[in-house]
Amino acid sequence: MAQMTMIQAITDALRTELKNDENVLVFGEDVGKNGGVFRATEGLQAEFGEERVFDTPLAESAIGGLAIGLGLEGYRPVPEIQFFGFVYETMDSINGQMARMRYRSGGKHHSPITIRSPFGGGVHTPELHADSLEGLIAQQPGVKVVIPSTPYDAKGLLIASIRDNDPVVYLEHMKLYRSFRGEVPEEEYTIELGKADVKREGKDVTIVTYGAMVHASLKAAEELEKQNIDVEVIDLRTVSPIDIDTILASVKKTNRVVIVQEAQRQAGIAAHVATEIQERAILHLEAPILRVAAPDTVYAFSEAEEVWLPNHQDIIEKVQAVINF
């Protein structure tokens, strides 16, 4: 296996699918010769040509509309929204059009579109660049929302997303792009969408999380182990639909749950997961379900984001609270 950063794994997945299927098209702002703002598409235009990897105007609504049309014509578009904070300009394309295509056409048409976009805090970006807006998309049936936390997951999930016949919003946390390396097979492989992964097994409390908060949770689990608290960490990987079976199996074992998200506390993925657990497994719980999340304010300016963002110490405190309830 090769040692790759997440950005390298993403590039490798794109290259794999561009080779495998001539209908795969990669496009977005500066993704061509420039290789994208984070260089996720670096070298792909030179390898596959300007007709398959190309730049678009700075117009997210146009990118969304183009993707819908190409999908209807048999292509597999992989558009990039340069930062997910700019998704508002293409919300109608995603939630109003792509998500409904198969239903409204009685299965005659599909939207085999994978929208890639970076998001997430901790890297001191300008305003509107780091917002965690996955909850906006996850509320809409018909769209899968995928958020990898490791290079291995990033490649397998992206290939699976591109091959899916329905729209997928594939979100890449900026802090994870180059923060570490992991083993990634050089050959092609897929990871099932909608399937969570138990990143750490434990018996005392379950942490359900995703994205960069997986690593904060694992760090918290290591410190809690010194206090004889054995933490299980579940990485959702796909936040819509969620893998409730994996979550429930863990809850029935540990009887205590903490849900961790980087996004603001109100609504969002954590609230949905908590509701599913209490509806299906409330009699297995020995303490309230607690959440770790950002405050219910707009995203803080970069000078204050380290105070605003959840961290491993916040997670430790919540785990201790459910253990001592």
Explain what the structure shows.
This protein has 325 residues and is α/β, with parallel strands linked by helices. Helix content is 36%, strand content 20%. The protein contains twelve helices and 14 strands. It has helices at 6-20, 44-48, 60-72, 91-97, 101-104, 134-138, 151-163, 213-225, 244-254, 268-281, 305-308, 312-323, and strands at residues 2-4, 24-28, 53-55, 76-80, 114-119, 144-146, 168-173, 182-184, 197-200, 205-209, 231-235, 238-240, 257-264, 290-294. It has a five-stranded mixed sheet, sandwiched between helices. The termini are far apart.
Question: Any chance you could write out the topology, listing elements then pairs?
Answer:
Layout: E1 2-4, H1 6-20, E2 24-28, H2 44-48, E3 53-55, H3 60-72, E4 76-80, H4 91-97, H5 101-104, E5 114-119, H6 134-138, E6 144-146, H7 151-163, E7 168-173, E8 182-184, E9 197-200, E10 205-209, H8 213-225, E11 231-235, E12 238-240, H9 244-254, E13 257-264, H10 268-281, E14 290-294, H11 305-308, H12 312-323
Parallel strand pairs: 2-3, 2-4, 5-7, 6-7, 10-11, 10-13, 13-14
Antiparallel strand pairs: 1-8, 6-12, 9-11
Helix pairs in contact: 1-7, 3-4, 8-12, 9-10
